[in-house]
Write a structure and sequence with these properties.
Elements: H1 3-31, H2 37-53, H3 55-58, E1 63-67, H4 81-90, E2 94-100, E3 104-111, H5 119-126, E4 131-137, E5 140-145, E6 148-153, H6 174-186, E7 195-197, E8 202-203, H7 214-229, E9 235-237, E10 250-254, E11 257-268, E12 273-274, H8 277-290, E13 298-305, H9 309-313, E14 324-327, E15 329-330, E16 333-334, E17 340-345, H10 349-358
Parallel strand pairs: 1-2, 11-13, 13-17
Antiparallel strand pairs: 1-4, 2-3, 4-5, 5-6, 7-8, 9-10, 10-11, 11-12, 14-17, 15-16
Helix pairs in contact: 6-7
C-alpha cells in the first residue's frame, strides 16, 4: 500500500470510528438504563465485524438483529450466514434474531409487514425498548432504538450513507430534505426570488432565460437542493420546460427503493390562478405513480402556496408547529400508503404586515 492509499485508509478508519461512537451514544440516549454501554458496544462491534467479514455470503439476505447485551445464554447457536439463509427460506417475513454477546442466538422470530406497509414500519415497532440492527442488503444497513432510526450505514465500512453537508439527509428522509429547502431557501424568499409583485402576492410567470413557467421556478430550486443534500446520483428530475409525459416531477432512487415528489403551486402569477383543486389534482397524480411498477416506497405532493394568509390558515389543525400544512387526506381524496401532502405558505412583506394588523 503506497503512502496515499495508507492516508486514505487511515482517514476512513477514523471516520468509521467516529460514526461508531456517535451511534453508540445515540443508542444510550434513546434507551437509557436499558442499554449497558460496555456489553452493548462490544456486541455492536461484533455485529460490525460479522457483516464486514461475511459480506459476500450475506449478499442480499435481509434480516434484523435484536440486541440483548449483558445476557449469557447457555448452549445457544452462534449467528452464521447459513443460519440466516435457512431462516429466510423458512418464512416469507424478515428474520428477527435476538442475539447477545459472542453473537449467541437467544430467540428467533419473523417480522411480516402488513400489505402495502413499508418494512421499516415493522422495524420501527419492533425497536420499542431495545436496539435493532437491520441489514437490508450488502450496501445498506440501519440501526434503530426506541422506535427511532439512529443511522443508515454501509455494512462494508460502517460509514454513513450520503453525508454531504449540514443539511444532508438519507434518501428515505427526502420529505424532510424538502422541508429543509422550504425553511432555508423559499419560506421568506431567502434565496429563491419567486415574487413578481410581493405586496400584491403575484408570483413570477417565469425566470428567464431558463425557467419559463411558475412551476419550473419552484421545481428547479427544489430539485437542485435535493441533488446536493441527498446521496449522490439518487435524484432524477423531469425536464419541467419540455415535459416528460405522465412521469413524476422528481424521482429519488437509492439502494433499490424509490420515492416520488410531485411539485405544484397555488395563487396567481397575473395570468393564471390555481387554488383548492390543485390539491386534488396533486393527490390523484400521486396515486397513479404509486400504482406503477416498481412501486415507490412513498409519494409526496409539495404545493407552494402563494394565496393570502387567510386561505392558508383555513387548514387549521393540519398546520404543524413549524407552519406547514400536512395531511394524508383532503376532502375525500386520500394519499397512497406512506404518502403525504405538504402545503408550504410563501411569506411576503405584505403578509407580515397583515399578521401584525390582526394582532
Amino acid at each position: 500500500m503506497n503512502s496515499v492509499d495508507s492516508i486514505v485508509s487511515q482517514a476512513a478508519h477514523k471516520r468509521a470510528a467516529l460514526v461508531f461512537h456517535m451511534v453508540t451514544c445515540k443508542i444510550t440516549a434513546a434507551l437509557g438504563s436499558a442499554w449497558l454501554p460496555g456489553d452493548g458496544n462490544q456486541l455492536l462491534d461484533e455485529i460490525r465485524n460479522f457483516c464486514r467479514d461475511n459480506l459476500a455470503s450475506l449478499a442480499r439476505r435481509q434480516f434484523a438483529l435484536k440486541l440483548r447485551c449483558g445476557v449469557n445464554p447457555q448452549g445457544g447457536a452462534t449467528l452464521t450466514p447459513s443460519l440466516i439463509g435457512k431462516l429466510r427460506k423458512a418464512d416469507s417475513g424478515i428474520p428477527l434474531i435476538e442475539v447477545s454477546n459472542g453473537l449467541t442466538v437467544i430467540s428467533v422470530n419473523h417480522l411480516t409487514p402488513k400489505p402495502d406497509e413499508d418494512s421499516r414500519n415493522a422495524i420501527t415497532d419492533a425497536s420499542a425498548g431495545c436496539a435493532i440492527f437491520y441489514y437490508e442488503h450488502d450496501k445498506l444497513c440501519s440501526i434503530w432504538a426506541q422506535c427511532q432510526r439512529i443511522s443508515e450505514l454501509s455494512p462494508a465500512n460502517w460509514l454513513r450513507v450520503g453525508i454531504a453537508s449540514t443539511f444532508s439527509r438519507d434518501a428515505a428522509d427526502y420529505n424532510e430534505a424538502a422541508k429543509d429547502h422550504y425553511r432555508n431557501e423559499v419560506k421568506h424568499g431567502q434565496r429563491l426570488n419567486h415574487w413578481m409583485n410581493e405586496n400584491d402576492r403575484i408570483l413570477k410567470r417565469a425566470d428567464p432565460p431558463k425557467l419559463s413557467t411558475t412551476e419550473s421556478i419552484f421545481h428547479h430550486s427544489l430539485a437542485t437542493w435535493l441533488q446536493l443534500m441527498l446521496p449522490p446520483h439518487s435524484v432524477s428530475v423531469k425536464d419541467a420546460e419540455k415535459g416528460s409525459g405522465d412521469c413524476p416531477d422528481i424521482l429519488i432512487a437509492d439502494f433499490g427503493r424509490t420515492y416520488v415528489i410531485e411539485v405544484k403551486w397555488m395563487g396567481t402569477n397575473g395570468s393564471t390562478k390555481y387554488s383548492w383543486s390543485t390539491i386534488w389534482q396533486g393527490i390523484r397524480q400521486s396515486k397513479r405513480y404509486a400504482e406503477r411498477s416498481p412501486q415507490p416506497e412513498s409519494t409526496c405532493v409539495i404545493i407552494y402556496d402563494g394565496r393570502d394568509l387567510n386561505s392558508f390558515e383555513s387548514f387549521k389543525e393540519q398546520i404543524s408547529e413549524e407552519g406547514i400544512a400536512e395531511f394524508e387526506e383532503y376532502q375525500g381524496e386520500v394519499m397512497p400508503a406512506n404518502g403525504i401532502c405538504y402545503i408550504l405558505y410563501l411569506h411576503s412583506g405584505s403578509a407580515s404586515k397583515n399578521a401584525k394588523t390582526k394582532k
